[in-house]
Amino acid sequence: MGYIKSALLEETGYVVLDMYGKQIDPKEWMDIEYVDWKSSGDTRFAPLASAKGEIECNGFWNHQPPRTDKDGVWIPSQTEKAPTLTDRALEPGSNVGRCRIIELQPNTYADALYNLHQDDNNRLNPDGTGWVVRSFFNLTDDKDSFFVLRDNRTDPNGETRIALPAGAQLVIDTQRLWHAAYHPGDAPRYCLITSWESGPELDAYMEKYNGVNKVESVPLDQETIDAGQAEQERRIAARAAALAARGQREVLAMSEA
């Protein structure tokens, strides 16, 4: 039967929507509770919806009964402090799984390449239902930051770099694409991440905000690309060797990103 997927995401795996032009009080992401949860860098997360309405970030399949990343339970103590962000997550009308704010500390381009990963969005997702994708709504004005997207983790050819100013809105099939954020500077980046189920509601939402599935990459000089690629290869090899010495191997799919 196959999954219900969005046609707009089929070609490239990502969609860039119109910028969100309204002001949001930073208290909505600064005054809520965060938990230490490391994913693709030095991060913390503030969940708005979780598996059971608790302030934690675990995959829904790690709870009893285990289930896929849908039907998230909203956390009143968090959503009351972040009403605009909660409304933004609910706006499409599609099923919401995990919904949380990420706090990412500054990093380097090489860090982002090393942290490229795919998400485990559709574990236990029943065939014939909507494919789970993720939305990214950038909250802080990170004009020098960008999202890195690749079809192949270690191949820079075809890399897409999407700018992350305040109000940037992306929908990404993060189980398909390798992704991570490059965030230079001296302050954390904050972004609302929501798991959405594909279907007519999400299609209508992306149409409403004039979604496009191809954008010109943020420019980056070749010297930085080459140096970042070399460092990525070095770190991957070093980690693989360290894990092999312990009889382990790297797990690349992450439940949070």
Query: What structural category arises from helix and sheet content?
Result: alpha+beta
Report the order of strands and helices.
HEHEEEHHEHEEEEEEHH
Main β sheet profile: 8 strands, antiparallel
Number of strands: 11
| Annotation field: number of helices | 7
Low-confidence stretches: none
- CATH architecture assignment: Sandwich
Provide the CATH top-level class: Mainly Beta
Helix content: 10-25%
Provide the number of structural domains.
1
What is the alpha-carbon Rg in Å? Answer: 18 Å
Task: Determine the CATH topology.
Answer: Jelly Rolls
Strand content: 15-25%
Based on the structure, what is the oligomeric state of the protein chains? single chain
Mean pLDDT figure:
94
Distance between the termini: 29 Å
Q: Which outline best applies?
A: globular
CATH superfamily: B-lactam Antibiotic, Isopenicillin N Synthase, Chain
What does this structure look like?
With 257 residues, the protein is an alpha+beta fold. It has a single domain (7-245), classed as Jelly Rolls (Sandwich), CATH 2.60.120.330. Helix content is 23%, strand content 25%. It has seven helices and eleven strands. The protein has helices spanning 7-10, 27-30, 76-79, 83-90, 109-114, 200-208, 222-245; strands spanning 14-16, 35-36, 43-50, 73-74, 96-104, 132-138, 142-150, 160-164, 169-172, 178-182, 189-197. It is globular and about 45 Å long.
List the helices and strands and how they pair.
Layout: H1 7-10, E1 14-16, H2 27-30, E2 35-36, E3 43-50, E4 73-74, H3 76-79, H4 83-90, E5 96-104, H5 109-114, E6 132-138, E7 142-150, E8 160-164, E9 169-172, E10 178-182, E11 189-197, H6 200-208, H7 222-245
